[in-house]
Every structure is written in C-alpha cells, then in structure tokens.
C-alpha cells in the first residue's frame, strides 16, 4: 500500500487515541488542537475493560497503572433506604471475565499519558493553538484550514477525522450537520482529598439513586483524590456550557438524602456544573473523506459511563481499517457500518438508565426491590456485550 496521511482535529481523549491508532496503522498524522496547551477540563472518568484493553494495546498500561485505580467493586445504593441494593465484584469477577481492568482515572492523567505517547510517535505532528476555520475535500484528499497565531495555514491529507467534541467544528464545517442539544440534565463535578473520605468508599465506584437526581463517586489519581459527580434534572441559564456551581443550591437538590451522602457533598469548596448535551442519532458519521469520531459523532448521556470508551473504541476500529485498505472512502463507510449499531445501542441503554436512576415513588421502590433480588453474577452478565468487546487485531504481515 502507498503511504497515506490523515488530519485529526481535536487532541482530547478520542482524538489522541485516534491519532495513535492511525499512526500505528502506518499513516502520517497531523493533529490539530485549538487550545494552546493540551489540558483536560473535567474530573474523573471511568474506563471499562472494553476501553482499557485498547489503551493497554497502545502501550499505556504502565503509565496508567500508576495513576488509575482498578476498582474492586461497583456498588448500587438507594437514597430512599440509605443502603446498598447490589454490587458487582470487579476485582474478583470482571478481570478474569474480560481480561482487562475496570479503571477509574482523572481525565488529566489519561490525557497526559496519551499526549506523551503521541509526542513520542514519529508519525504524529502536533499543532497547538490551531483554530479550525474551513474544511474542504475533493476526490483525492481533504484539507483543514486553521488560524494559528493570527496566520492562516492549510493542511492536506488523504482523510480528515473530526474528534473535536460535542461542539464539533468539523461536524458543522465538514458535514453541515446540526450540533448538540441540551438534554435537560446538568452534571456537577468536584474533587476532594481522599483523606477526607470514609474508608469504605475508597476502593469502589458507587452510584446512588434518588428522586430526579443521582450521585456517582470513586477514587482517582492513584487513590489520593476522590471524584464526585452529581447529575440533576435541570434548566440551563448560564452563558456557555459550564459554570461554577453554588454548593447550597446543589445540597437543596439532595434534601432528605442520608446524612453520610450530604456530608460528602458538603466537602468540596468548589463545584463546577456542566450542561449535558447529546447528538441526534441517525446522522451520518462521514461524508467522502471526512469522518467524525467520539462526541462529535455521538455525544451521549453519561448513564453507562461509556462516552470516552466509545471514542477509544472508534479510534481502534478506524486505525485497524486504515491498516488494511488504501480506499479511504470505503474505509470510512465500513467504519460507520461497524460502529454505529453498537454505539446507538449504548446510547439507548444510557437513556433507559436515565429513567431508571431518577424514578420516584412506587416505581423507585419497585426498582430497588428488583435490584436486591438479582444475583450479582446476573447483573454483571448484563454488561457482557459492552465490557467484553474486543478491539480488532492487526492484520497478519
């Protein structure tokens, strides 16, 4: 095969993973990032086995092992009763079952590991402070025009991949598709020192169900910090799509919850709140030689903790297809065909969980009873289709 090239727009988790996978497929990659510093904004992130095995295959197992926490179990708790409804033992069951760990990690730690790997990869050329202004394509290639320091520069390649997030410029400029829409949910995120947290929370990922709200918490940063994410049904009246949140407003949404949970929510000095947005399903992921990946293609609600995992999977599949064929347009067609059904099933599952997590009254009591009666092994098996996904392996030489 002749040497090919790709442009990847966006150096977030999805873009960096895609750049590494495409480079290791033998293509030269130009990676364009609007920010002047590669830095993740956010807090914790759950990386289930379907995604962790991709990262391990990329050689990130050792650097992430020192920063990530391999959680021992997922605990499902009820604010209504104050107790645990069920649990999945990841330490004893998931690792032998899936062959890869279930990690929780600070987003910045994962992005830093990916960025360092991209910097070491000779086929990747990174340009920071590059604001996309135009996307064009013809029968032989695609181009991205960016503004860097007040000067316009155009990069050309055989294909262009938009991994520039929920507010994707590539989606708008390259595919003329509508952008994301607010879902009526906000996520409040904060990090506190692990030394302030009860010991029984420090090895687990815990989700609490409540009336119209739920809470997720887990350790990050080698267990030295603790991540809190509260999801509430809400309006959005702020400028932009993230803002500082008022702790007292958040606590008012958790009135009547168990004291130990409200004590957790009282710990952070600062909360940041984010509008949760999603993409319409059914839109194309590519046109000609321009494709979308991760949130730019399929932003989803976080009720399966699979947003980053799906972007990581996207990168692995696209890289594998490019390693096997020179026909770029056919590769992008196959990429969409291989990925869309799975991703849309994850989106549908997350939407179902949205309803289940936030039930009220008798339906909430029925949910809690049902969860208590389900054997833990059966509960885990419901996730086999997600966690058991295997990335494609390189074609034989």
The CATH superfamily is identified as: FAD/NAD(P)-binding domain
The termini sit apart by 12 Å
Radius of gyration, in Å, reads 21 Å
Record field, number of beta strands? 20
What would you call the structural class?
A: alpha+beta
Biggest sheet layout: 8 strands, mixed
Q: What would you call the shape?
A: globular
* Overall average residue pLDDT: 92
Beta-strand content bin: 25-35%
- How many helices? The count is 14
Identify the CATH class.
Alpha Beta
Quaternary organisation of the protein chains: single chain
CATH topology: FAD/NAD(P)-binding domain
Helical amount: 25-40%
Low-confidence stretches: none
As for the number of domains, it is: 1
Which key features would you list for this structure?
single chain, 397 residues, alpha+beta, FAD/NAD(P)-binding domain, eight-stranded mixed beta sheet, six-stranded mixed beta sheet, 14 helices, 20 strands, 37% helix
Written account of the structure:
This protein is of the alpha+beta class and 397 residues long. It has a single domain (5-180, 279-387), classed as FAD/NAD(P)-binding domain. It is 37% helix and 29% strand. The protein contains 14 helices and 20 strands. It has an 8-stranded mixed beta sheet with strand order 6-5-14-15-16-13-18-17. A hairpin with a 2-residue loop joins strand 10 and strand 11. It is globular. The two termini are 12 Å apart. The mean pLDDT is 92.
Quick overview:
This protein has 397 residues and is α+β, with helices and mostly antiparallel strands.
Topology:
Blueprint: E1 5-9, H1 13-23, E2 28-32, E3 44-47, H2 49-57, H3 61-67, E4 69-70, E5 73-78, E6 84-88, H4 90-98, E7 103-106, H5 107-120, E8 124-127, E9 130-137, E10 142-148, E11 151-157, E12 159-162, H6 169-175, E13 181-193, E14 204-209, E15 213-220, E16 225-233, E17 242-245, H7 247-253, H8 259-266, E18 271-278, E19 286-287, E20 290-292, H9 295-298, H10 307-324, H11 328-357, H12 361-373, H13 376-381, H14 384-387
Parallel strand pairs: 1-2, 1-12, 2-8, 5-14, 12-20
Antiparallel strand pairs: 3-7, 4-7, 5-6, 9-10, 10-11, 13-16, 13-18, 14-15, 15-16, 17-18, 19-20
Helix pairs in contact: 1-5, 1-10, 2-10, 10-11
């Amino acid at each position: 095969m002749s040497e090919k090239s790709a442009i990847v727009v966006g150096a977030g988790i999805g873009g960096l993973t895609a750049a590494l996978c495409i480079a290791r497929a033998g293509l030269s990659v130009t990676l364009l990032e609007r920010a002047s510093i590669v830095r993740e904004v956010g807090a914790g992130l759950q990386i289930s086995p379907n995604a962790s095995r991709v990262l391990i295959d990329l050689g990130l197992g050792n650097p992430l092992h020192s920063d990530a926490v391999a959680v021992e179990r997922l605990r499902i708790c009820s604010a209504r009763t104050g107790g645990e409804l069920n649990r999945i033992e990841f330490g004893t069951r998931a690792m032998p079952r899936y062959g890869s760990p279930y990690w929780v990690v600070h987003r910045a730690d994962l992005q830093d590991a990916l960025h360092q790997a991209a910097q070491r990869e000779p086929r990747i050329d990174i340009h920071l402070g590059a604001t996309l202004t135009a996307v064009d394509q013809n029968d032989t290639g695609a181009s991205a025009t960016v503004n860097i320091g007040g000067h316009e520069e155009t990069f050309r390649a055989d294909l262009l991949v938009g991994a520039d997030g929920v507010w994707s410029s590539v989606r708008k400029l390259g595919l003329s598709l509508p952008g994301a829409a607010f879902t009526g949910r906000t996520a409040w995120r904060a990090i506190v020192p692990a030394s302030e947290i009860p010991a029984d929370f420090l090895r687990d990922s815990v989700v609490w169900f409540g009336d119209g709200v739920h809470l997720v918490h887990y350790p990050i940063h080698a267990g030295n910090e603790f991540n809190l994410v509260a999801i509430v049904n809400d309006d959005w009246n702020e400028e932009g799509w993230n803002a500082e949140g008022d702790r007292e407003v958040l606590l008012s949404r958790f009135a009547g919850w168990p004291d130990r949970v409200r004590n957790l929510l009282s710990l952070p000095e600062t909360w940041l709140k984010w509008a949760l947005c999603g993409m319409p399903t059914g839109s194309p992921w590519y046109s000609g030689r321009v494709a979308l990946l991760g949130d730019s293609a399929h932003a989803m609600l976080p009720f399966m903790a699979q947003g980053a995992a799906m972007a990581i999977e996207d990168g692995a599949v696209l890289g594998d297809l490019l390693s096997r064929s020179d026909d770029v347009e056919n590769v992008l067609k196959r990429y969409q065909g291989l990925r869309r059904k799975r991703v849309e099933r994850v989106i549908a599952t997350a939407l179902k969980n949205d309803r289940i997590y936030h039930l009220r009254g008798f339906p909430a009591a029925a949910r809690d009873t049902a969860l208590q009666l389900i054997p833990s092994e059966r509960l885990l098996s419901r996730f086999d289709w997600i966690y058991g996904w295997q990335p494609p392996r390189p074609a034989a030489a």
